[in-house]
# Entry
Amino acid sequence: MKKTSLLFLFLLFSALIQAQTSWTKDQQAVQQIVINLFEALSNRDSVSLKNSCTQDITLFENGSIWNADTLILKAITLNTATDFKRSNTFEFVSTTVDGHTAWATYHLHSDIIRNGKQSNVYWLETVVLQKVNEKWRINVLHSTLIKRT
# Structure
């Protein structure tokens, strides 16, 4: 009986793991827009950043409310470090697509070098996207800082 129960739990766990990593084409498209946004931040590319967002994007960042211009100012314009490098790693928890609206929750880990100092930052974030002219755009981003080292 124990072996049967353990086998059942193993199979169930395996199925759950497989289900979490099998994303549909639409879900992957949504996730790619999120990745593109942070790639634009890494490259300090305000044009690509704006292409990932709706015109009226709202960002909830550590208790503050930002728009695209605030994000560009804080993350790109004021970021003048010549040695700046940022790499991002994503673990998508869930991604849902429903018509012209989608939302995704993910863990974001960023390794950042700036002014000779390296930091590692971990967030839990949720985005809401809208399909605008047949392209996904981020409309809301809510970010919770988990850890900074």
